[in-house]
Each structure stands twice: as C-alpha cells, then as structure tokens.
Amino acid sequence: MRHIKSLLGISLSAVFLFLSACGEKKQAEAKDNTAPVTVVVATPGGAVEGGISVSGKIEAQQTANISTRMMGTITRIYVKVGDKVRRGQLLATISSQDIQAKQAQTNASIAEAQANVSNAQKDFDRFTNLYKKQSASAKELDNVTLQYNAAKARLEAATQMRNEVNAMLSYSSLTAPFDGVVTQRMADEGNMANPGMPLLTIEQNTQLEVSATVSESDINSIKKGDKAQVEVKAIGKTVECTISEISPSSQFTGGQYLVKLSIPEKEKKELYAGMYVNVFIPVTGKTTKENTAAILVPLSSLVNKDQLTGVYTISNSNTALLRWVRTGKIFGDKIEILSGLAQHEKFIVSAEGKLYNGVPVKENK
User: Fold this and answer.
1) CATH class entry, domain 51-61+207-286
2) What is the residue-averaged pLDDT of the chain?
3) pLDDT tens, residue by residue, 285-296
C-alpha cells in the first residue's frame, strides 16, 4: 500500500511538471507572438541657446485692498471670496450714525448761516442806498458791510463742513473701484473697522502678467519686446510671453530689477494669480558651461505617473524600458534631464502603439 502511494505521488508530480512546462511554453509562445511597437528614437541634445533663467510669479495687473477712512462697526458685507464684481458695485457698509448726526448738525448750521446772510444782505442794501442819499455815514456802511461779509464767510464754512461730513459718510459705503473678482475677505459683519485696515481684496483676474526679477549682471542683456519661455509647473504648461516692462531701479528690490511679461490672451484660461513660474529669456551670444552641458529631451517624450517623471528607453533585448529621471529647466519645447539618462543614450520620442515595460519595440528607420 505504501509502495502504491509513492508511485501515485511520483505520477502526480510528473503530471504537474508536464502541465507547468506546457503553460510556460504557451506563455513564451504568446510573448513571442506580440507584435513589436514601432517607435521613433533619439539621443539627448547637449547644446542649447544661451539665456537667462529666473523665477517669477503670475500676478494680476491691477489689485486693490478695500478699506475705509472711518472707524465703525461693519454692518454688512455683500460679497464673498470668488465673487465677480463690477465697478461701482456696493461691497460693504460701515455703521455711520455719528456721521449722520454731524451731517444733520451741519445742515442746521447752513440753514442758520443762510438766514443770517439774507438778513445781512438786506441791511447792506438798505445802508448802501442811505449812504448814496447821504442819510448814513461811511462808518455805518462799513459796519454793515463787515457784518454781511462775516455772514457769508460763516455760510461758506458751514458748507465746507457739510462737504467734509459727506466725504466721511461716503467711506461708510465701500464700492468696487474696477471690474474684478474678490480674492480675500479679511473681516466679517460685526467686526470693528479701523482707518486703513483692509477689509477685502479685489483683483482683475482677466488681466494677468508675469512678474520676475533679473540680476544686475543680466539686466543689460534684455529689452522690451524680447520673447521668453514661461513654465507653469502647476499645470505642466509652457507659455511664450513678451517682456512688457523693465524697472530702471533696484533700490526697493534688493539689487534685483523687476521685469513684467505680458501673457497672450489665448493662454490665460488655466492660469491664476499667485502661480509660480520659471522664466527663460533667450539671449543671443550668451553661453554658459551649464547650458552647453545640458541633456535635453522633448517635453512630449516625458511620462508622468504618481508624481514621478520618466522616459522610455530601449533595453538590450529590444524591449521598452521605463527609466525614472529628474528634470531641470525648460528650454522652449525641451526640458533638461539632471539624472537618470546618459548623454548619448537612446530614448523613445514617440510610438505607434501603447508602450509599457517589456513590450517589444522596433525602430522606425
């Protein structure tokens, strides 16, 4: 019985090995039958046009902090962050009972001053006629004239006081200075507003530009109208912009010169104020060791997976091999490879089918 069990175990093992061999053979045949993917390959470029690389940020061309010049309780805020507003639209109101009381006082003072002016004018006209008829002395006419002028001065003072009160009262109603969008709300209803304290921030989100700083050693190499490549890493996009403004002074920017770049209208759709960018400004005749030694590949050849970046290379067995790399600066439609790819190592630029690790490939010659 024990002998029979041993024979049975050996037989089952032989059958298992046979089936496994058949499965491996079929898998190998299936793998061998996979049609190679036709690919276009290239080697990294090593020389780029010289230029200036700086960091910058996308900003709104016009930004305003909405504040008041009076102290009072915020009675109402009509907008929230993200709301679009029009020029002149009411944004918030401040309690103004004390200003309204002063307004009533000035109105009463004006009414009194007007009555005094009317009465003084009558006296002035009467004594003028009497003086012409030699029925009043010059001294009496001078006194009446003085009283008339004093009454007019008091009326003018009361009128100017009302203008001042009206100006203060206008600060109790805060309006939008231009069309834009609310980007910050720093106070709530019921808070105390103080003079100069920002309550809201409004930006012209449709009018965006790039702001960057250039060192004093490079400022003479650029001019208005020059083109620049702006890389927006947040959305993986590169935009060609134009230098629109160059500050002639670095007094308030720590030795750096402020440069503004205009963004084409068609490229503003996915951009938001506050996004950080890398700016490359090509400069003819400017070369550095860093530029000439750069390993460059087309941006279109990159593969992004789970915050990792790679390129497909070709293994010794003519299969696709995904190589993770570390990227650097962008130069036009190419990007610098800092590590992960050798200077003269072939990589796949494009493929006529789906690429994955181990798929057979053949070069398109």
Assistant:
1) mainly beta
2) 83
3) 554 444 445 788
Which residue spans of the chain are classified as CATH 2.40.30.170? 51-61+207-286
- Burial grade of 82 (CB within 10 A; 0-12, 13-18, 19 or more): exposed
Does CATH place domain 33-49+287-365 in 1.10.287.1080? no
Locate CATH 1.10.287.470 in the chain: 97-169
pTM recorded for the entire structure: 0.53
User: DSSP characters for 10-42?
Assistant: HHHHHHHHHHHHHHHHHHHHHHHTSPPEEEEEE
CA 141, distance to chain mean position in Å, is 71
Sheet containing 192-193: order of strands = 173-175, 90-94, 72-77, 192-193
- Ramachandran category for residue 358: left, alpha or beta (phi over 0 → left; psi -120 to 50 → alpha): left
Q: At what angle do helices 97-132 and 138-170 cross, to 10 degrees?
A: 160
Q: Is the pLDDT of residue 347 over 50?
A: yes
* CATH number assigned to the domain covering 97-169: 1.10.287.470
